[in-house]
Amino acid sequence: MAVSLNIARTQKPGRGAGINPDGRFEPERRAKADDGWGTDPEADLPPLRTRVTDEAARTIITRNASPDIGFDRSINAYRGCEHGCVYCFARPSHAYLGLSPGLDFETRLYAKPNAAALLERELSAPSYKPRSIAIGTNTDPYQPIERTRRITREILEVLARVRHPVGIVTKSDLVLRDLDILGPMAADNLTKVGLSVTTLDPHLARLMEPRAPTPKKRLAAIAALSAAGVPVSALIAPIIPAINDHEIEDIVAAVAEAGATRVNFVMLRLPHEVSDIMRDWLGRHFPDRARRVMSVMQAMRGGKDYDARWGHRQRGEGPFADAIAARMALASKRHGLDVGSLRLRTDLFQPPQRERAQLELF
Predict the structure, then answer these.
(1) How far is CA 328 from the centre of its chain?
(2) Disulfide-capable partner of 91 in 99, 101, 151, 206 (CB 3.0 to 4.6 Å)?
(3) Distance CA 263, CA 338 (A)
(4) 3-class DSSP state for residue 346?
């Protein structure tokens, strides 16, 4: 029996998604229905609070073979992200947990408290070959719960101790808490940080990224990292047609002035459930531009909401995509910013000592 998709609007203050669609792997789809009494079925519901569940992870380093990105291994200390960025391409990963990529993604989080111990074990394997590890590829390592859980910091402590290279991507100035680790690592070319700056407009940032730090705080974080000798880049991601694309030149100028030495960008990506979530968001906040946004997106994606092909998913193709790339290149050149990725050292790696099965004779 066909059941309607659960896309009833459930916008909550401080949350990005306005809907909570069932994951694509669920055998049933449920939808709220009017019972005829003319009342709001959610009027008496309690506030939507963040819930964090500990996960006993079995491994912590994730491998990939994608030619689109400049790393082959990554670490994510958390599943889900309280920043609530409405456009987040990682939202569909919550469907693998039997949860919604919508509000569940930003309110039902999973933490991996054994991450540091697992990392030390995996780095001590005789077959391990060091290459830069990326942190913050799926969910933000410095989202609000990191203030108390400190799992990202524990991971960095292990990497610093064994002198292993690491690149971090975040939207949060909480990264400055760990300057005591990142500073010395940067002195040996073992770390770099990327700050995502999507807009300079605090009102737009609040709509797109409701629980992430303000653009002003992110620029201040770039300045503080740069002053501490940590190589810092800026990532304009995502660029959304008719929403923030007019800011490209201003963002590049602002991050350059703050101290960034590199800049890159990613076009809006709408895999799986993100398409419905984004369409709903556009309809609520930008009804006058919603059709225009989706029309341009589809023009860049071969007539579809999303094109997952390697080499196309990050940038798109066609006149609009070409124009964005040209504007980025020109703005970067004007401000002396590189667009490539900084290579970190791997030759300083000192594997952790493995536990021995028995004591040595001498």
Answers:
(1) 21
(2) 101
(3) 6
(4) coil
